[in-house]
What does this fold into?
Amino acid sequence: MSLRITSYEEYQDKYAQSVNSPEEFWSEIAETFTWKQPWTKTLDWNFSEPKIKWFEGGKLNITENLLDRHLATRGDQVAFYWEANDIDGEGKSITYSELHAEVCKLSNAMRELGLAKGDRVCIYMPMILESVVAILACARIGAIHSIVFAGFSSNALADRINDAQAKLVITSDGLNRGNKQVDIKSMVDESLLSCPSIEHSIVVDCIHSNPEMKSDRDLWYHDIMEGQSTTCEAEIMDAEDMLFILYTSGSTGKPKGVVHTCGGYMVYTSYSFQNVFQYEEGDVFWCTADIGWITGHSYIVYGPLLAGATSVIFEGIPTYPNPGRFWQICEKYKVNQFYTAPTAIRSLMGCGLDVVNCYDLSSLKVIGSVGEPINQEAWHWYHDNIGKKNCPVVDTWWQTETGGIMLSGLGNLSPMHPTHAGYPLPGIQPVLLDAEGNEIIENNQEGYLCIKFPWPSILRTTYGDHDRCKNVYFSNYDNYYFTGDGAKRDENGMYRIIGRVDDVINVSGHRFGTAEIEDAINTNQYAIESAVVGYPHDIKGQGIYAYVVIDSNKIEDSATIISSLIESVSTGIGKIAKPDKIQLVTGLPKTRSGKIMRRILRKIAEGEKSNFGDTSTLLDPSLVEDIVEKSI
Ligand code: WTA
It folds into this structure.
């Protein structure tokens, strides 16, 4: 059943209804899904513990809602077109009934290996169809998946496996990325040296690299799939049972495992997908994210499949073999809704219009943006040249923790305004708070973006550490969920996201905590101490600037030290977190109480030479002059 709102007036009605009687509003939507047992209580919540339960007592399996439920009406419909990295590579497609069969086979194989409801499974895979099968097989048997983006290093992977105490890892021998092949099996092998909880690893033969297989641990995907039945009874899950863990960075400490649960996540991803993208029967949707990020979870896998959509999955990168690749794929599959990140738009903008205009993009109806603020220039380029001034740009603001899109236009229904994410989706009650926690009522004032009422796909906890969830999201302001973003609301009620107000840097739409990068740098033999800040970057949105205090006893030329520091970050986190600029310094500006004055370092990284505000609490003001002088 379609959950699609079809006019702006209907949106306004639904929004009012969702605020006035949220339980009735969400119940009506939830009833359109297949439940094995209805819920007894629609919502039970407080933001102080926090405790948030949606559809309590309800029993379901999400895979029955995204596969079995569709078989009678759309078994032969394509669920995914898979486009290979190579432009002349052999593409594949999979129908709903084929996907159902594959998922059942892997579910059976996983059960044979002894996996059961509640076990954690780590997925470290390329953008291939087997990744979707792996995700859904976990969900089918009630195992909790934790997908780790395959660009993370073996150390980062090991940390995540250990935090979740995963029993199984599903991976591939390698992956194709542009003109490179990356061996990921050896990364996993390295991680598993320090992951005692892992019993098996299932390996997809993706690049045929004939890796070494550890006989008591590694299993080929194609071997364990052989002879398995194409049906598999789905585990009966409570609405509030965990569906997955996804690690994400915050201001402090190691990345935390954001937990989403079965019922609420199902309802919200499906609802938001259909409304934001105005997906209609027969359309082809394409989200270019990687499944390792929340965008891939919610809008490649769960949202589209729940809605019975046909989507594209692309293995490769936007610039290979040339920067027209995205547009060529849009033409090839006659994509109707296209969803990508500002960083991709900004990098493709610089490549000229010849590689755009040679493709027929007339199928496009809605084009979307996610992950970071989209600047004016990129917005207009996207709107004019990709959307041909005919397609609404949906600038979707949301987070790993929110599970689904929170602020956005709904296709062509809503008014839009460049660089403004727009209005809250039904059910979402945003507010802007001042530093004291008072709601800002006036327009055009900047405030801390918070949400004052739960929606079905809000995070429930951080895995293994509920206090952390409480402290990070629910303690800054009593009774509000704190997003970590600053925002403004204009006179029309539209929200504009300014950016993070905490120590999180958003590089090409990827989140990193400054502390996490500092930790990786500090493991380096030359480093004594470091401070990492973000600075504006033309393509990536933000770049990473690291100030590193070097051990003066270790004499080495600075090029050697810098490459060694970069290596430490690549090893500790992954190449995606490499600093763009590293400045070797003799000390960091600190207050008398020993706190690093990041505000000053941020200004220096932005190119500021003076005007650092109040520096009277600095222990050694001369350090600042020295850092400014040698800044990059
Ligand atoms: C930022 C990605 C401006 C924001 C879905 C948020 C955005 C963080 C937008 C979450 C947008 C995401 N406009 N900023 N449309 N979308 N962000 O968890 O700072 O990877 O807090 O989720 O990205 O990043 P995450």
Notes: The pocket of WTA is lined by residues 248, 293-295, 369-373, 395-400, 421, 483-485, 497, 500, 506, 511 (CB under 6 Å). The radius of gyration is 24 Å. The mean pLDDT is 96.
